[in-house]
Amino acid sequence: MRTNKYLTIYDEIVEKIQSGQLKPNTKLPSENELVEQYDTSRETIRKALTMLSQNGYIQKIRGKGSFVLDVSKFDFPISGLVSFKELAQKMGKPWKTIVYEFALMKPDDYLQQHLNVTNKDNVWKVLRAREMDGERIILDKAFFNKKYVPILTREICEGSIYEYLEHDMELKISFAKKEIFVDEPTEEDQKYLDLKDYNHIVVVKNYVYLEDASLFEYTESRHRLDKFRFVDFARRGH
């Protein structure tokens, strides 16, 4: 049992949001109404609301009040380079990576263009579904230039490839160019994702570079539409 009143209020509102009793975009009662409802001080209510906001349950809009956010969606940072393992651990969700294809191959015309390689180069192909809370919600089609990633195994691909590249191979992964668009699911998506009745997916193309600006990875990440909210922080230049 929580001893601080604001934590008890926080827990109660979280439970209502997670159970669906408070639905996304619902406006919470005003601070005055909450003070009366919980028979407590305004400071206690503000502490509870601040904590709800910081943990992604509500959004406080100046002059309008506090609104419930959709907690069934995972925030996926557009501008960051975050591995699925890092995202899942941050969310505190049970996760698993299922490797469906792992092979060393010669690149076709499409890959030669997107990974800046020739038909004489070798490329690792890794097709993985990302499972969270028991549902396959991302399909990653990743290709790595063997010149920069000489050794890769299925076992590494079942964990975190970035963790292996940075810690074991000591590669300096620096930046990525990303393209994001909505697409209709392919047969591959239907086969390897738990799509339910969703007839569109969000595709993120990643061109990932090392510190010396060498392009070493091209990945298409195909996300189930209902599970992700793509977020970024933008500052206007002057």
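The record above closes out task 2.4. Task 2.5 opens with a second protein, given below.
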Amino acid sequence: MTTARPVALVTGASSGIGKEAALGLVKAGFDVVGTSRDTSRVTPLDGVAFLDLDVASDTSATASVKEVIERFGRIDVLVNNAGIGSIGAAEESSVAQAQAVFDINVFGVMRMVREVLPHMRAQGRGRIINLSSVQGFIPAPFMAVYGASKHAIEGYTQSLDHEVREYGIRAVLVEPAYTRTGFEANSTQPDMPLQVYAQQRQTFGRVMAAAIKDGDDPAVVAKVIVAAATDPKPNLRYTAGTLAGRASILRRFVPAWAFDSQIRKMNQLAG
């Protein structure tokens, strides 16, 4: 089976940002394939075909892309949205726990990119959209492992974009701030908690819960993803939402000492 319509593959499309992105791409004229680790539990979405995918598995990544090509004959856009949060002080997460987060947030992206690139090169066009975060370019106290994974995605995507541009492919970043999703509830908690960090970790948890409650609707981020997928001349970075835009401007133009002070104030850190 082949289609003349552009085809988008969206990972982690069963809820939140991924779900809204999938629906937004349908409205923009794409045939959309969404993925979930267990599609038997997914509520059907109009215009979205679902596949099982575990981005932490090489075999699963290979099989999912193969199935999309067999069904549609092409992949024009890959949205790497699947990810996991991680909360806790840097010292409180074991290396094994950090590796598990990176296996999804970083190596999961790399697996999917490696699978789609040969097809995009063969067709002479493609767009890879990697979901980063404001915590990919600012400090993330009490989310050090998560922040590190998003910093890694920033560096990877910037380099990838230069490598594939001559083949008609662009790799871009979408950088949301706090979004009203199940991020906090689905984040890993420290597997080596230390009493010395307990009070500040609890404070951070309250700060994050309030920020998510007042955060952007996932549809705001989805709109930016659709723009990143369809812009004829895409930007490398797309901030999503007012807070993300402000954070980007502050990071670029505010003196380092003032920015540092603001980070500590926002996160209610002493000193």
